[in-house]
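Reply to dn_fold:

You asked what the input looked like. This is it:
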Amino acid sequence: MAIRGIVAISTAVLFLLTINHGEAIWLTIPATGGTKCVSEEIQSNVVVLADYYVVDEQNPGNTPGVSAKVTSPYGNDLHHQDNVTHGQFAFTTQETGNYLACFSVDPSHPLPNPLTLGIDWKTGIAAKDWDSVAKKEKIEGVELQLTRLEGLVQAIRENIEYIKNREGEMREVSEATNARVAWFSIMSLGVCLSVAGVQIWYLKRYFHKKKLI
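and this is what came back:
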């Protein structure tokens, strides 16, 4: 009974922790053509797996193809396919930032119906092949669940550390910006006082020369 409880708890925790790391996304490309994109901010050294497929509910036997392109935060092409109805891509991130996946249809060739495109995007621990891990390490049942939980906890710890680092960077930028604004305000005040002093000196000199005061 205790083992069943552990398994149930482990399964529930796994579901709650992985639901945001791998999920299907649905995009609608209008019949007039155009581009639809999805992006995600990912850290470096993270495995990314994705499957995408085009669905034409009105004409399933003759589904038009789309162009698929995946780029890194620095604009490097990680995946590029033209006129495909399904495909997949996999890579390990080299830099931290927004990774962009775009799917497009040439507007010069309008479609009879809008297209629905599904993309199953997985990152990090959700992209790991746990069946291969179980076979390689010869583990199963509760031990496998605990191994997955250990990996999830490690991933969460890394995400928290990443968020803390980003928060520190943003705080430093904010403090530096505030310091610059403060110095700019002081300099602006000094310039205004200097100009006011010069104006007063000039007016007094002018009035003295005109013998008005």
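Confidence is low (pLDDT under 50) at residues 1-21.
Hope that clears it up.
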